[in-house]
Amino acid sequence: MAAQGELATWVREAVAAVRVTDMHTHLFPPSFSALQVSGADNVLTYHYLIAEAMRIGQMPPTEFWDLSTPLQADWIWEQLFEKTTPLSEAALGVVQIAQAFAVDLRREKLAGLRAKLEASATDVYADHVLDLAGVDSVVMTNDPFDEIERRYWEQGTPRNPRFHAALRLDVLLNDWPRAQAQLSHSGYHVGPELGEVDMAEVRRFLKDWVAKIKPVYFAFSAPDTFAFPEDSVRGRLLAEAILPICREQRLPLALMIGVRRQVNPSLRSAGDSTAKASMLPIEALARRYPDNKFLVTFLSREDQHELAVTARKFGNIMPFGCWWFLNTETLVSEISNLRLELIGPTFVIQHSDARVLEHVIYKWRRARKVATDVLTHKYQLLQDAGWDLTREDVERDVKQLFSQNFWDFVKR
Ligand code: REL
Ligand code: ZN
To answer: Which InterPro entries does the UniProt record give (predicted)?
Structure first.
């Protein structure tokens, strides 16, 4: 039993020390040099900040996109750090990245950050940043339909072992005409009709990519209108190609549901939004395919309670992270409390979704702070009820939430 005040210390220290597996990012290792993104200008031109700066500055989006990246960064700096106080989650994140590199952003400004962050990361720098964030390894988002990325895999580019692969299937499931054209081009005999033979070719393609990149899971994002089962290209590809290969290879499928792409196309990557989606397709998938494993996250706050309830019904569902617009102090706290209350410590507490290497610093700092508060409160209730909690219990739970639950699920 922890003495007065000791409990909070156990939790704070366990959460501070835990080595994180960041199970969904958009990062690449330095060896994938054309895709690797780091440095101050990229930190400043994160699409989260673009959307926020556009609310303040009077620049038409077309003019903004015509600027070079450093000029875009200057402009965003002016809007969010000169004209206003950086109170938003993403803007505060920039200040926290600066702090981790001992840059006094108020005094040294963007120039100070530019001097300390590396725009072309080496492995030493990538390791340094991951260590600053306490991140043991990250999972990438690997798109087999991306020309540039494909070349790296086809050349067998070596990579920093802290970067795991995940096969991202958005093009296959959300843009069949493009996928079909590219598959045909790469020597897979698929026609637009998707008959038995075509489906076998899609399965061959998936297996080839499993062999090539050794993903820890397959993933795709879907709109709020996602339905399953469904007599559509997406429904058939899922049932007849993706789920069978996931079963055969014992790989989870990560479903990221509820994104409404390009509600404001003039903002490009900053123009996506969210909407409440139905839980019925997840229920149907988990029930019909007990031998498949599903990592699941929803983008709307409104879906979170149903997801936790659904995870109580199906052990082959692993809820993960607080995605994108949910990754705020308020909502991570609310959602983590809700999940602990409904399914105990049997979920993946967070992923960073980092697009820029240095993002892991502030995203995990935030996740740790919220987890510390949430867990301390829950443990206190337990102890007040007479449960003889030990420091080892706390360390085990924290490790499960930040890393072990993910790996146990992948390896199950
Ligand atoms: O993986 C996704 O689909 C999303 O996380 C991204 O599309 C999104 O732009 C990302 O930056 C959000 O955090
Ligand atoms: Zn993402």
So the answer is: Metal_Hydrolase (IPR032466)
Question: Cα–Cα distance between 99 and 122 in angstroms, integer?
Answer: 21
Which residue's CA is the nearest one to ligand 1's atom 8?
324
By CB atoms closer than 10 A (0-12, 13-18, 19+), residue 9 is middle
For residue 256, which atom of ligand 1 is closest to its CA? 3
Q: 362: Cβ–Cβ under 8 A, 6 or more apart, which residues? A: 92, 93, 94, 96, 97, 100
> Which ligand number lies closest to the CA of residue 90?
1
The verdict on whether omega for the bond into residue 229 sits within 30 degrees of 0, i.e. cis, is yes
Instruction: State the pLDDT at residue 5.
Output: 84
Q: How many angstroms does the Cα of residue 102 sit away from the middle of ligand 1?
A: 29
Distance (angstroms) between ligand 1 centre and the Cα of 269 equals: 9
Whether this model's ipTM surpasses 0.85 comes out as yes
Residue from 327, 269, 365, 363 nearest 45 by CA = 269
Side chain identity, residue 50: I
pLDDT at 4 over 90: no
Q: How far is the CA of 108 from the centre of ligand 2 (A)?
A: 31
Alpha helices (runs of H) in 81-216, residue ranges in sequence order = 89-100, 105-116, 123-133, 147-154, 170-174, 176-185, 196-213
Domain range 6-37+127-411, CATH class: alpha beta
Domain borders along the chain are 6-37+127-411, 39-117
Q: Which is the closest atom of ligand 1 to the Cα of 219?
A: 1
Give the amino acid at 57: G
Dihedral sign from CA coordinates of 265, 267, 269, 274: negative
For 39-117, CATH gives 1.10.2020.10
Residue 24 CA to ligand 2 centre (angstroms) = 6
Over residues 99-106, the mean pLDDT reads 98
The DSSP bridge partners found for residue 254 are 219, 295
Domains 6-37+127-411 and 39-117 share a fold: no
Task: Report the first-to-last Cα separation within the chain, whole angstroms.
Answer: 33
pTM as predicted: 0.98
